[in-house]
Amino acid sequence: MSEKTRLELTWIGKDKRPRLEPRILIEDKALSYRAEASTPLQGDLLADERPPSFHDNLLIQGDNLLALKALESKYAGEVKCVFIDPPYNTGSAFTHYDDGLEHSLWLTMMRDRLEIIRNLLADEGSLWITIDDNEAHYLKVLCDEVFGRRNFVANIVWQKRTSRENRAAVGSAHDHLLIYAKCGAVDWKSTRQLLPANNAGYANPDNDPRGEWRSIPFSAQGHRPNQMYKIKTASGDFVDPPKGRCWGATEPVYLEYLKDNRVYFPNGGAGKPRIKQFRGEEKGLVPMTWWDAEFAGDNEAAKKEILALFPDDEPFGTPKPEQLLERVIHIATRPGDLVLDSFAGSGTTGAVAHKMGRRWIMVELGEHCHTHIVPRLRKVIDGEDQGGISKAVNWQGGGGFRYLRLAPSLLKKDQWGNWVINPAYNAEMLAEAMCKHMGFTYAPSQTHYWMHGHSSETDFIYVTTGSLSHDQLRLIGEEVGSERSLLICCKAFMADAEAFPNLTLKKIPRAILGKCEWDHDDYSFSIDLLAETPDDEPLEDQ
Fold first, then answer.
1. CA gap 37, 269 in Å, rounded
2. CB contact set of 416 (below 8 Å; sequence gap of 6+)
3. I need a labelling partner for 259 at 20 to 30 A (CA). Which of 56, 192, 242, 482 fits?
4. How confident is the model at residue 104 (pLDDT cuts 50, 70, 90)?
5. What are phi and psi for residue 417, nearest 5 degrees?
6. Residues 6 or more apart in contact with residue 232 via CB below 8 angstroms
7. CA geometry: angle at 290 spanning 282 and 330, to 5°?
8. Contact at 8 Å (CB) between 350 and 341?
């Protein structure tokens, strides 16, 4: 189906998109945390796989759509794995709206976030989303729109509970885990990691000098003419491949295996050939789409993990077990890669990524960002958290994180209804914010007061709330020189803007007034996301 004729979801308010302000992030150093210098690092990791430094990990409190927008300029194309556990839209999240509006708001909320997540993903990055049956199939179509159908990898079915739900017509025992790869499913196959192979079944019954081995089948699915031949067993009989299959290699390759004493015939020598695999030769296992509770934990295990960390608190409703996150992060990343979770919840993603030596970013709006996630991460960093996957990875502690908050809106209306620079902004904050708005990298110079950022090696930006005169601009222009250019964002200037060929002059806030929506702090589930209906007619139930 062509791009022009493909089927798409439609819903109330789909055409209305927020014009997001790219906020800056401000560190709350009282909540940031790093390990003491003497704290040991993870025992099983090599030197280049140890926990990333304090500056690499970010915990951001604030609206996650604004936070994603704030990250976009610096982290576009840098995130290797995004794991999100969004609201499932079961009816409790939208108590003020009827079902039709619930569904439309949920789709809009997800679409807006997914589009920025796509920009943040590295070329070989992947997105993993947990969801239940209520919205899973709509979400699949929505993700097809945002990422493209060829980028869909799999729908993993995760066994979230093992107990029977007797109150339901049909008890819910699973969630979905949708996977999308930015580079497409085919190309992502070469970058994803295999699961550790099972080490059971090794022995050395024939005293092979190469050590313990186990046998693996020597057959493959399908019919390949050059892999269809008879093999003589150790008992002297000739055998064909199993029905519907061919041998696992051509005959010359098989003869090499035989010469190398790698062929094993079971059933006293009368069975079909198998190949010896020696310990250490395992290639790993391809992930499957069925993850049972034994393999990836369940909700009950997750609640026990949270209760072990916070025994006096009411547990989170549907936390995810560390084992589930360990499987995701192992498959999708390598040590040192960046993992993002913009629906942080209880902080499991960051805790597991940290223990596995990955860099991480988490975003959470609620107060539990500092009441629960911060204490949990501190226990991880101090090595006190020995639950979850800690023992499996021999976690001993180390690393750190920075706690960031979204800055307030750069512009606010004054008492007369005019947009002005927010008084909460100091000179440094203003310079950083203007760099974001004007497409510059914030990097203030230690030697040139007029270098607040750059867009290239020769193009710079200077931000000031002062009013610049002709003589001031002339002196700045002379210092900039003919080989460089400078964008000046100021409150006012008293000069001919065309008089200085290497300077471009812009007034604040006029230069940015039309760039975005100002002083809008909450993009969670606002009724304003819906498109307006003509003539104020009531919305019909969809």
1. 61
2. none
3. 242
4. confident
5. 85, 15
6. 238
7. 50
8. yes
CA dihedral for 232, 237, 238, 242, sign (positive or negative): negative
Query: Residue 33: phi, psi to the nearest 5?
Result: -155, 140
Give me 130's structure tokens: 């947990």
Cβ atoms of 309 and 388 within 8 Å: the answer is no
Residue type, 117: I
Predicted TM-score (pTM) above 0.90:
no
**Structure tokens, 63:** 């609206």
Give the integer Cα–Cα distance in Å for 121 and 125. Answer: 5
Give the list of residues 6+ apart from residue 224 with CB closer than 8 angstroms, or none. Answer: 246
Neighbours of 119 (CB within 10 A): 15
Is residue 309 classed as helix, strand or coil in its secondary structure? helix
Token pair listed for 40: 């040991």
Give the orientation angle of helix 348-355 with respect to helix 322-332, to 10 degrees: 60
Note the Cα 168 to chain centre separation in Å. Answer: 33
Domain spans of the chain, in order of start: 25-194+286-406, 213-278, 411-507
326-367 confidence digits (pLDDT tens)? 999 999 999 999 999 999 999 999 999 999 999 999 999 888
Please say whether the beta carbons of 435 and 490 come within 8 A.
no
Contact indicator for 401, 54 with CB cutoff of 8 Å: yes
| Spatial CB neighbours of 147, under 8 Å, sequence gap ≥ 6 | 114, 118, 127, 180, 182
Measured from the Cβ of residue 99, the count of other Cβ atoms closer than 10 Å reads 12
DSSP 50-98: SPPPGGG-EEEES-HHHHHHHHHHHHTTTEEEEEE-----SSSTTTTS-
Query: What 3-state DSSP class applies to 394?
Result: coil
- CA separation for the pair 240, 238 (Å, rounded): 7
CB burial readout 129-141, b (16+ within 10 A) else e: bbbeeebbebbbe
pLDDT of 37 reads: 58
Residue 238 backbone phi and psi in degrees, to 5: -105, 135
pLDDT average, residue stretch 180-192: 94
Its CATH architecture, for the domain 25-194+286-406, is 3-Layer(aba) Sandwich (3.40)
In this structure, what are the phi and psi dihedrals at residue 506, rounded to the nearest 5 degrees? -135, 140
Token match 């970010």: residue?
A: 58
